[in-house]
Amino acid sequence: MPIIIPENLPAADILAQENIFVMNEYRALHQDIRPLKIAILNLMPIKTVTETQLLRMLSNFPIQIEIDLLTTETYQSKHTPAEHLKTFYKTFSDIKHLKYDGMIITGAPVEKMRFGDVAYWKELKEIMDYTVENVTSTFHICWAAQAALYHHYGIHNYLLPEKMFGVFKHRINNPRCELMRGLDDEVFIPHSRHTEVHRGEIEKVPELEILLESDEAGVALVISRDGRQVFAMGHSEYDAYTLKEEYERDLRKGEKINIPRHYFIDDDPSKEVIVNWRSHGSLIFTNWLNYYVYQLTPYDLYADSK
Q: Quick one: a GO cellular component term (predicted)?
C-alpha cells in the first residue's frame, strides 16, 4: 500500500522515479481504509532532503500512511524556502488537539549546544510531553533521541573527542525484541554526531532497553519497554551519498573532519561508497510501524476522549 503525501510535495517526484508507490490525498479519500496517521517533526536544516529520506523508509508498509509534516514555531529555518514551509508544514499549535498513531522527531545540527540553549527547546519539551498521551509510539533520531532521553529520563549526553562519522557494525542485544525481527546478526547504521549517551546511565533506568550497540559507535538503539518511545542514535534513513556530501561540505568550510569510516571502498574518498545499511534501516522502520504502531494503536484514536 502507498504512503499518502500532500499534492505537489517535491519528494513525490523523487520517490516515483525510484518506483516507490505514493498516493495523493484525493485518491486516498476514495478508499475505505483508515490510514495510519504519522507526524514528522522535521528539525533538520534542509527539510526537503529529510522528508524524502523518511518517506522512503515508511513507504514499504502495507497499510496506508497519512503524513503531517511539522516545523517549529519558535525557530524559522534558514535553509528551506518559506513558501515550502507555508505550503506543506504545520506547527504544534495546528495539531496539538489531535492524536497520532506515530510520530518521528528528526535530528538537528545543535549537538554541541546545551539542551536549554537551543532556541526551540521549550517548544520541543512541550511536544515531547504531548507525545506521551497523544501518540501511540514516537521514533526519535540522533539529537532528538538524546534530547528525549534527557527530557524523559534525565540521561545526559556527552561531547565526543571527535565526530562519530561513518557506517558502523552493530550487534543485537535482544534478538527476540519485535523491533529486531528479521535483522541480520550484524546491523549496519550510518552515524554523524558529535555527542553520545553512556550505556551505564541507560542501564540504571529499568524502563529502558538497549537493543543495538557497537564497539566503535557505542549505544545505537534504545527502546522503552512499553514500546512507546524509540531512540535511534544513528541515521538508518540516510541516502547513499549523505555522508559523502557532509564530508565534502565540511572540507569546503575548512573544518577539521575525518574521512567517514567504513564508507568508501578502501576508505578512499576518491572511490565509490559502500551501501550496506539500506535494508536494515527499512526493516527497522517497518518493524516499528507494524509492532509498535499498527498492532497497538486503536482504530478510533479518540475513543478515550469520548
A: cytoplasm
